[in-house]
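Design request, tokens follow.
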């Protein structure tokens, strides 16, 4: 390998890194904006300003979940730009992987929160003296209920681990199909 080829390969690695960071920032921004609309009862940033640890753990769970799924998609896109070659079908497959993975992660987080809420309500209904109709996840988070936040965090991470593995290999069959169609 010549010095020029080595410098070129390092340049490609830097481009992949910059592209991955840009996709991550874009995805997390989109996810936070959408989830901010879903959690209308909480002003997350105001709660963070108040040092509400429960809301911080809740948001961290969302960020980890989205990052976990999007990370697989970024990996698919990165495979398109390898030293010595540019693979357009792999790039298209990776982008499709991203645009499937990101909405899937957001939907899963919202769904998981709803399921946890249902589970907590059922569990609370079995306890004597607990007024179930007064239980609200958003209120619990605003009141700093760290236990609820940790349960949500764990749920988000667990679901994202499964989704990320499902999304991990979408790009390869898509890029293979594109190569077959164009060539």
């Amino acid at each position: 390998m010549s010095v020029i080829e080595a410098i070129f390969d390092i340049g490609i690695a830097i481009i992949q890194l910059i592209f991955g960071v840009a996709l991550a920032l874009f995805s997390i921004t989109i996810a936070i904006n959408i989830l901010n609309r879903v959690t209308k009862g909480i002003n997350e940033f105001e709660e963070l300003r108040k040092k509400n640890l429960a809301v911080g753990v809740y948001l961290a769970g969302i960020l980890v979940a989205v990052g976990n799924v999007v990370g697989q998609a970024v990996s698919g896109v990165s495979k398109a730009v390898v030293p010595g070659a540019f693979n357009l079908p792999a790039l298209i497959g990776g982008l499709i992987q991203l645009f499937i993975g990101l909405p899937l992660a957001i939907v899963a987080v919202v769904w998981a929160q709803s399921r946890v809420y249902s589970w907590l309500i059922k569990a609370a209904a079995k306890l004597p003296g607990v007024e179930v109709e007064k239980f609200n996840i958003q209120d619990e988070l605003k009141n700093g209920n760290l236990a609820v936040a940790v349960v949500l965090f764990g749920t988000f991470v667990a679901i994202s681990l499964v989704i990320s593995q499902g999304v991990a290999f979408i790009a390869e069959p898509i890029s293979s199909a594109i190569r077959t169609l164009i060539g």
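Comment from the thread starter after seeing the answer: thanks! The beta strands are 81-82, 85-86.
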